[in-house]
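Need a sequence for this fold. Nothing fancy.
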């Protein structure tokens, strides 16, 4: 298997974590005969420091051209005073989705907050969190209905946005 992986090292302690993750990937590649090619991309505080933008188009293009992106956490006290549009976290909103694997390892089963009978069956899934609408960009409304608070998040889409969603994989 040959894959191109964009690396976003992130801010604060994240570069150390991504560096170790790359070491793990290299060992996996060595053991199983894979080839991973890494492309450096900047996002978050490091992109603000380098380009003045939390995710410049050139860096987003590197991510879109890759098979996957290994992303370290972004943000930190250094950039807290910046205006909303210039904060490191705004770079995340230019990405399509955030995927988070969830698995319970037998050695950590006792630490799980889930019921024992659920943990015993095993858990191995991926949470995909889309970042293109709803709570991030849409209109937010709340009202009372039947004694409960109801919330609604909406997102209007332009033709350009719909075409973009199709390109990045909303199949």
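Here you go.
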């Amino acid at each position: 298997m040959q894959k191109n992986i964009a690396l976003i090292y992130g801010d604060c302690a994240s570069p150390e974590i991504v560096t170790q993750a790359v070491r793990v990937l290299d060992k996996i590649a060595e053991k199983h005969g894979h080839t991973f090619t890494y492309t450096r991309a900047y996002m978050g505080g490091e992109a603000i420091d380098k380009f003045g933008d939390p995710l410049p188009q050139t860096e987003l293009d590197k991510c879109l051209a890759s098979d996957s992106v290994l992303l370290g956490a972004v943000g930190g006290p250094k950039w807290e005073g910046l205006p909303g549009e210039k904060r490191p976290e705004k770079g995340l909103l230019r990405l399509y989705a955030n995927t988070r694997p969830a698995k319970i390892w037998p050695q950590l089963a006792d630490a799980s907050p889930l019921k024992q009978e659920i943990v015993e069956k095993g858990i191995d899934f991926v949470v995909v969190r889309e970042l293109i609408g709803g709570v991030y960009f849409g209109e937010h409304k709340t009202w009372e209905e039947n004694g409960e608070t109801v919330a609604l998040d909406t997102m209007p889409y332009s033709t350009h946005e719909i075409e973009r969603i199709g390109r990045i994989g909303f199949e």
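For context: The mean pLDDT is 84.
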